[in-house]
Specification:
Layout (H helix, E strand, L loop, with lengths): L1 H22 L22 H9 L5 H12 L7 E3 L2 E4 L4 E4 L4 E3 L2 H14 L3 H8 L3 E9 L5 E8 L2 H5 L2 H17 L4 E13 L2 E14 L2 E14 L2 E10 L4 H6 L2 E2 L1
Antiparallel strand pairs: 1-2, 2-3, 3-11, 4-5, 5-6, 6-10, 7-8, 8-9, 9-10
Helix pairs in contact: 1-4, 1-7, 4-5
């Protein structure tokens, strides 16, 4: 089981590297600009011209991004205290007792570095190195190999305005691609289906596959939900082997 758990951790790192494309990495984000004419009307003063520019209409998309960026002022990373992970910005928390074990800060840093080392995508590398993509929490069941991860990334305007179902569908395709490109895994397939998260019914990306490990085969299950606030997204991924506990892992999160 130790080797299987090690494989699970490596698979999750692969998910991190691939799915940044699904949700965006912050590249290409627009800036809010006021729109004004190239010259002031005849007889207007400089002050009147400045006032007109500052109150010029902006598009709904620009207004949405400006509002989202205000939310970012309160952004903070999550913290683990004892058996509880708490993410105050996204208002979520998770408590896990033995045999579940949270990764330390050093282990999370190593996991983030592994994403950089494993990826050939310059966008992914830049996102991690600039702090726009990182693993905020990983907790694993030492007996079963189940793993729950919270990944945080900064996104562009398109992802901010997309529906939760559309984002789940995009993530589903990325997770399937990741499974089918992972050594020893075959038959990756997936759907978007409702699951329970923070006491609510939300769309999730749900994928399955088969892992061949030595002479044995294991069913692999992954389920992902997304939480958005400001220009940040928390991607919560649950992974299980043999028995599908992914929905239960996500349902264990509570709202702060």
């Amino acid at each position: 089981m130790k080797n299987v758990k090690k494989w699970t951790a490596l698979m999750l790192a692969g998910i991190m590297a691939l799915s940044v494309t699904a949700c965006g990495s912050g590249a290409g984000r627009g800036t809010v600009e006021t729109k004004s004419g190239s010259s002031a009307a005849s007889g207007s003063t400089a002050a009147e011209s400045t006032a007109a520019e500052s109150t010029a209409a902006v598009s709904p998309e620009e207004a949405a991004e400006a509002e989202a960026e205000k939310e970012d002022e309160n952004f903070s990373t999550g913290e683990v205290s004892g058996t509880t992970y708490r993410q105050d910005f996204f208002k979520i928390q998770l408590t896990r007792d033995t045999p579940w074990v949270f990764e330390s800060e050093e282990e999370l840093q190593a996991q983030n570095q592994a994403i950089v080392d494993a990826s050939d995508d310059a966008e992914v590398k830049d996102a991690v190195e600039n702090g726009n993509l990182y693993v905020d929490m990983t907790v694993a069941n030492e007996e079963t190999g189940e793993t729950t991860m919270v990944r945080i990334l900064k996104v562009g305007l398109g992802e901010m305005l997309a529906s939760d179902s559309d984002l789940a569908d995009t993530m589903k395709e990325s997770l399937i691609e990741d499974l089918n490109s992972t050594d020893g895994v075959s038959g990756g397939t997936g759907v978007v289906e409702d699951t329970t998260f923070l006491g609510k019914t939300v769309p999730s990306a749900y994928v399955t596959g088969v892992l061949t490990y030595g002479d044995s085969q294991f069913d692999v299950f992954e389920r992902c939900v997304i939480v958005r606030k400001g220009t940040f997204v928390a991607v919560v991924i649950a992974t299980a082997l043999i028995d599908d506990t992914t929905a239960d892992q996500l349902a264990a999160f509570t709202a702060i």
